[in-house]
Prior knowledge:
Layout: H1 13-25, H2 31-49, H3 57-83, H4 92-114
Amino acid sequence: MGRNKVIQVACPPELYSKVQDYKDTKSLTSDAEALRELALFALRLLEHSDNDDGLSTRELLESILKYTVKGFYQDSMVYYQTFDEDRLSGDLSLHRSHRQLNQDKAGVKIESILAGEDKEG
């Protein structure tokens, strides 16, 4: 059985600090373990980034975000309709305006999140 290959890499202080932060966050025992995890992660990203036929990871996540936020606002609308029947007594114009209002709110929320203004969701 052969030994594993060793790669020695000099790191500028900023990179070393980031590796240390990652190691601490993941409760890893060594710098080597942290660098192995980071290298494997980066290589997996690179292997899948050449797939021009599919969506990019960002496009996929943005699409998921869009439908999740819209679903949230749609749930809010259903809640409103279900528990406030007196205000919706047969008047579909109120229902339509509420639906559009919730869709517009979802759009604003999506743009806010994508712009980095609302990281907590």
